[in-house]
Specification:
Layout (H helix, E strand, L loop, with lengths): L2 E3 L9 E6 L4 E8 L3 E9 L1 H5 L6 H20 L11 E7 L3 H18 L3 E5 H7 L6 H6 L11 E6 L4 E8 L2 E7 L5 H11 L6 H9 L22 H21 L28 H29 L4 E5 L6 H10 L4 E2 L3 H4 L4 H12 L2 E3 L14
Parallel strand pairs: 2-5, 5-6, 7-10, 10-11
Antiparallel strand pairs: 1-12, 2-3, 3-4, 7-8, 8-9
Helix pairs in contact: 2-3, 4-12, 6-7, 6-8, 6-9, 7-9, 9-10
Bound molecules: 5'-O-[(R)-(carboxyoxy)(hydroxy)phosphoryl]adenosine and zinc ion.
């Protein structure tokens, strides 16, 4: 990436305004000293995308343009001195949807240029990890002491709608990608399986809810990809699809059922698994599938994160990304890991700009600034 380096370290009270528009949330945040969240505004586009059952890039780009200024103004409103209290600006420049990324990056560059403030571009995956450095407002009020910052070396598990990776962090800016998904991201698998089961979008919370209270039942396969920290979830998704199709054809064979009055009822067409309607009529079956799917994903993610932490002597495991909101994943990791597991509050797990500000702080602290020519990089990797 195009950047400049200098060596001075940051004064106390250093306050960053950050923007995040890589996917379907328009977000702006103000963070002090890289950790203290002063404001964190997120405008979700969920409703605009829900009826399509997933994110439509063109819709996302348009929504970011509409939401950016109101979100930015709301984020700045907490500062008594307004713009005078901002010392630097940051924005996500990848990975993500190019049209979506452009809005945040160009807004941030224009503001930094106009105000004569330092600017840095941030990797969205790195930002998810840095959510673990943040101290949310309610946490600050609840604790008398500021929670300690994570100590290196660390293992980070990033699980979101677009990404699934395991990374070793030896220091700020020194990352080693240990493994990543070879096909679907964990969140993407949750979303697709929810769709197959007719549970709606976004799939993660819907599957978690459907699986609640279930135990045992059929077991779905786990793609271990032995001797690798890589992941694969598409086979699991296909396994669910096959079980649903088997069930549908069994239901179709039983029909035409007789009504209480003995009249033949109309046979229902088997619902295409890709539609948003309930493809199977039995809610117990749907709950069993949701449970077995969640167990399979959580087992693989947990096993690999725990093994990596052991192998590299990590002091902690950092959990990040939208799927980190999954309560089963959180509890299994905490139960099986030898080291503490740190996880941001849910509002900081899903896409937000506070995490971008946290990552930016440690880049500015290392003397890094981006050049004005910095462009969006939709396929940006961690550590690039
Ligand atoms: O990090 P994020 O907000 O967006 C991306 O950068 O991708 O993650 C969104 C993903 C979605 O796939 C959503 O289904 C998943 O996080 N998710 C969950 C849960 N809450 C959100 N997955 C599993 N369990 C949850 N409770
Ligand atoms: Zn994300």
């Amino acid at each position: 990436m195009t950047e400049q380096h200098s060596t001075q370290s940051l004064p106390s009270g250093f306050t960053i305004l950050a923007l995040e528009t890589s996917c379907d949330e328009t977000a702006a945040a103000v963070v002090r000293d890289g950790r203290v969240v002063l404001s964190n505004i997120v405008a979700s586009q969920m409703d605009a995308h829900r009826r399509y059952g997933g994110i439509v890039p063109e819709v996302a780009s348009r929504q970011h343009i509409l939401s950016m200024i109101p979100v930015l103004e709301e984020a700045l409103a907490v500062l008594p001195g307004g713009w005078n209290d901002i010392h630097a600006i940051a924005a996500t420049y990848g990975p993500g949807l190019s049209g979506a990324l452009l809005t945040g990056l160009n807004t941030a560059k224009a503001l930094a240029w106009q105000r004569g403030l330092p600017f840095v571009g941030v990797n969205h995956l790195e930002a998810h990890i840095y959510a673990n450095w943040l101290i949310a407002n309610d946490e600050r009020r609840a604790a008398n002491n500021t929670p300690n910052a994570p100590q290196f070396p660390l293992v980070a598990l990033v699980v979101s709608g677009g990404h699934t990776l395991l990374a070793l962090l030896r220091d700020h800016g020194a990352y080693q990608l240990l493994g990543q998904t070879r096909d679907d991201a964990a969140g993407e698998a949750f979303d697709k399986v929810a769709r197959i089961l007719g549970l709606g979008y976004p799939g993660g919370p819907a599957i978690q809810q459907a699986a609640q209270g279930m135990q045992g039942g059929g077991v779905l396969p786990r793609a271990w990809l032995r001797d690798s920290y890589d992941f694969s979830f598409s086979g699991l998704k296909t396994a669910v699809l096959h079980k649903v199709q088997e069930r549908q054809s069994r239901e179709a064979k039983v029909a035409p059922a007789r009504s209480k009055e003995g009249k033949p009822q109309k046979t229902k067409e088997p619902t295409p698994a890709a539609s948003n309607q309930a493809p199977v009529s039995n809610s117990h079956f749907v709950a069993q599938m949701a449970y077995a799917f969640q167990e399979s994903v959580v087992d693989v993610l947990t096993t690999k994160a725990v093994d990596a932490a052991r192998q590299f002597g990590a002091t902690e495991i950092l959990l990040a990304g939208g799927v980190a909101a999954n309560t089963r994943l959180r509890s299994e990791l905490a139960r099986r890991a030898d080291v503490p597991v740190r996880c941001p509050p849910i509002s900081l797990c899903t896409d937000n700009a506070a995490m971008v500000a946290a990552a930016a702080y440690y880049r500015f602290d290392a003397g890094v600034q981006s050049e004005w020519e910095l462009d969006v990089v939709p396929g940006l990797k961690l550590g690039a």
